[in-house]
């Protein structure tokens, strides 16, 4: 049975979204972003943890309680103009906000809260596992989106604690929408991943809800540049495998950043994609923590250092998708902008903002 994450309470407030003129109810415990997503509104967002600034909106009237300091994310001008982060703001009164909704920019799927039984756990590296599950209820999502998985037994202020993980599976590979998978990196001391790596097994039931995020493939003819680090390969593989199913043939360059050869994984899936892709497909692994005598003849260092060398002047023409640790994303975005790639052609998902930091 599907159920909404948040239920109405006697202390609901309302949020009016301008210029769309939409009026929404907001549960007293819900953030503005959660309320919008819960009601199917395409409110822009990425990390949901106060780190990316994607959910910023202007508070036109009313009062909110802000859960984190937004001054690190918003500019002085935005602060002066009363911008807030919707993912970190719980309304204290009826509010009205101004934001450009993402409607029309991508697919919308109903938010579902369901459970799933683990069907396989495969160790990909020393600290990343591939968790496959079969959901009790069918769930529609777009390749590149993520789910919130409940931490077993952890409830804070009456709300289940969750961790965010991108689907590593292409939804089109399972027409009945019950089979999903995730790449999950162990965070030492993290409540969820410590439990997952020591206690979870095939047959264990997890609960969660989703889908969230807007890291899906955009239309266009531009060649595609994917940049993945660590477990950030999950949504990138999902997007590429779904694109293959959809007949996309745009040229692809995929950079995969890891520390050593032992941290590279899913190479068979990448090779399979490359073999079946209709356009050109270049794969560039980059290792950052190798000994000089490690026997690696490929690229060393950080991905940002190699973008120009691999793509040269062609870099500016790309549509770019980045997923992984924030420092990798930030350095690559700087390089992309310097090379002339416009912000409208750059899409990113800062993985650690919502899983690692929340987990720690
Ligand atoms: S800061 Fe709110 S979604 Fe990232």
Automatic annotation (TrEMBL):
InterPro entries per UniProt: 2Fe-2S_ferredoxin-like_sf, 2Fe-2S_ferredoxin-type, Beta-grasp_dom_sf, Cbr1-like_FAD-bd_dom, FAD-bd_FR_type, Flavoprot_Pyr_Nucl_cyt_Rdtase, FNR_nucleotide-bd, MRET
Residue ranges of coiled coil: none
Name of this protein: NAD(P)H-flavin reductase
Cofactor: [2Fe-2S] cluster
Pfam family, one: Fer2
Domain 2Fe-2S ferredoxin-type, residue spans: 11-103
Chain ranges of the FAD-binding FR-type domain: 111-218
Native source species: Solimonas aquatica
A GO molecular function held by the record: iron-sulfur cluster binding
